[in-house]
Request: fold
Amino acid sequence: MAATFAALSSSEYAGRTSTVPGEAEGYAARDAIAAGGIVLTSDSDLLLFRGDGEANTWGVTMFRDVEVDFTTRKISTLLFRPDDIAKGFDLELAFLGYLSHCDPRASFSTIRERCAAIAERGKGVEGEMGRKWREFAAGYTFPEGGGGRLVDPRIAEVLSLRGCVGRKKEMFMPMLWEDTSRASAWDVGREVRALAYSLLFPAEMSLEEISRRGHGIAGTPVGIMSGKEVKRRLHDVISESQEENWLARHTLRQIVGVFATRKQPPPHTSILESCACLMSGSNRPDITTTASRKKSADVRWTWERIQIFAMLQAAWFSLVLLSEVLKETTDDKTRLDVLPVGTLDRRRFTDALPGVGDRALVREVLAGYFEEEEVEEEGRGEGSIETGNGISKEEACEGVWKAVGGRARKEKRRGPPEKAEVGGTVIGGGNMFAALVG
Reply:
């Protein structure tokens, strides 16, 4: 679905494509019946709609029935015309669908016999089946109105819930390509998404985000903010968006902030630089250079790189959600400009060629990370601080020291520094944290 949306939004069909609330089948059937067109779908529910004209030529084609002959450049498929099928059976297809829904194991001949028995009793379908049939049939009436602007379907589903009643809501997060042995990538950007939810739902709403947790699926509570808190945080986000390279800076802070919360060393600087390059828009994937080809050959997907790319997508999606919610709930002055989904291409991520500005941005964010760690250490007193990997902070900081910059204190050492491994990256040992804060 995401790939289809990306292709449509960047093609000549963008102006003729819209997002509709709820299911799209009714809108597709209504428009196809009016124009005598064909709906290409994978959902057989389209067959249960029927036009009211005598000579309606609309039809339904299933994706699985489409065959393409690339030699002759011809396409062949099966075309189903619901009106003709209904006339042939002398039955409403929606009623056949309802009986099949009531007894999924019944054969088609059995359903036909039941329809004949109902007709003989003469009570009519509504008199025979009652309220449940009316509720089922209501789902196959044609909707009114048209679609709205083109919005990612996953976000449009959230927007459609605005104003709904209820004490509890569940938000099912999109699946990400991530390392299942690590914490969920959706921990990134949760505060941004909470701000978006707070603009849509009342403060008393109980909300959970459903996403991967380990090898299973679990819910994470998300607090709905008060109006005053929403106003304050929204002001902070809008102010941040006025800064240069705000999107890259915001994304890096979100990712590094999650590692800080978990008391873990930050990701490898080369991966963070790829993130900065991608989100700053400085990468030029359309230009293939010797350097980019060499980098593409040298870079390999590691689990650390996979996880950070997933976290990057989570941060981007959170901003897109907030951006779309702002368009629905505020005036035109409150806007966030977020890069299109095509930016988050895996090849662009591995082929990224970070510039001076990207590396400086990473140094800035990591400097903030270590300043916070220094404050926490002073609050706990002297001594070595252990990270989530069981490695002291002094050891973990050695790997990012070159990116952060600064002057190392001169220390007497007895032999070369030892090596330690963090997140699959070999780093040097030694008391470099003292050098960072010195």
Observations:
- Residues 22-138 form one domain.
- The mean pLDDT is 77.
- The chain has three domains: 22-138, 153-358, 389-437.
- Strands lie at 38-41, 59-62, 67-69, 74-76, 168-172, 206-213, 216-222, 419-422, 425-428.
